Amino acid sequence: MLKIRSNVFETNSSSTHSISINSIGNDFQYNEIPKNTDILIVDFTKNFEECGSNFTEWTKLNFLIYLICKVKECARDDGIDDVMNYSNKLLTILKKIIRKECHSNLIFDENYLFKHDDFFYFDCDEYLWTILDLDKYSSYDEIEEKLKDIIFNKNKYIKDDYKEW
Questions:
Q1: What pLDDT, in 10s, does the model give residues 53-101?
Q2: For residues 118 and 98, what is the distance between their CA atoms, to the nearest angstrom?
Q3: For 15-29, what is each residue's pLDDT tens digit?
Q4: pLDDT for residue 4
């Protein structure tokens, strides 16, 4: 058998299948959310995998903040008050989760993001609660449990898959 690529198992058969082992989360400021401190997030887009999979507490938190802020911005532009209010509620709950679970204060400027970002346009008609598997009538406790599970459950990750239409 001829070795073509290092660290990849290949055969001479006509089928195509390859397996590789990769590292995750090494390029970010943190893997876990910092404990007992003020957490200032300045640029969300440098703290999660754009068009990739987010496995760590840190990347999942940043992606959720980004997504919620982006939906809020689109809702504001489209004049959809219930989505804007729901987005504000989710951001408040996220801050409380981090305070409760990590004893840290989550600080970010959502307006900074939109001055410097053209990552994607989110269609507010898809509503954030559908993505999070909630609805606009979900209780505070249901929302908190869902967000906490997404961030801290090691078996869950956020996959951001971009497809050009």
A1: 788 999 899 888 888 888 887 777 777 788 778 888 899 999 999 999 9
A2: 27
A3: 554 444 445 545 666
A4: 55
Q: Residue 158 has which token pair? A: 């956020």
40: β partners: 107
- Let me know how long the chain is: 165
Place of tokens 């990849």: 8
For 140, how many CA atoms within 13 A lie in the half-sphere containing its CB?
Answer: 6
Residues with Cβ within 8 Å of 130's Cβ and at least 6 positions away in sequence, in order, are none
The pTM of the full predicted model, rounded to 2 decimals, is 0.74
What sign has the CA pseudo-torsion 105, 106, 109, 112?
positive
* CA–CA distances in Å: residue 165 to residues 3, 69, 137, 162: 38, 24, 33, 10
Q: How far is the CA of 65 from the CAs of 15, 43, 48, 81, in angstroms?
A: 42, 11, 10, 19
